[in-house]
Specification:
About 55% of the residues lie in helices and about 5% in strands. With about 70 residues, it is mainly alpha-helical. The chain has one domain (about 10-65).
Length: about 70
């Protein structure tokens, strides 16, 4: 599998989209996974990912198993 290079604003746009829609799609999860694997995250970006995962655990954000374009 070829590594995915993210645009500098891609992660912040993903965060905003997930918070706004309250749904974490498969595409969102792939973007987050690519960011985590790339290991080029700032402390703020890691904190934002932690916040998203915490909201999933609390039931505030739902996980969708299909691809959804926002």
């Amino acid at each position: 599998m070829r590594p995915m290079n993210l645009l500098p604003t891609a992660l912040s746009e993903q965060f905003f989209g997930v918070i706004k829609s309250r749904c974490l799609t498969k595409i969102d999860r792939y973007v987050l996974m690519a960011a985590l694997v790339g290991n080029h995250l700032t402390a703020g970006e890691r904190d934002a990912i932690d916040l998203l995962l915490q909201r999933v655990i609390q039931g505030e954000i739902y996980i969708l198993d299909e691809f959804v374009l926002k």
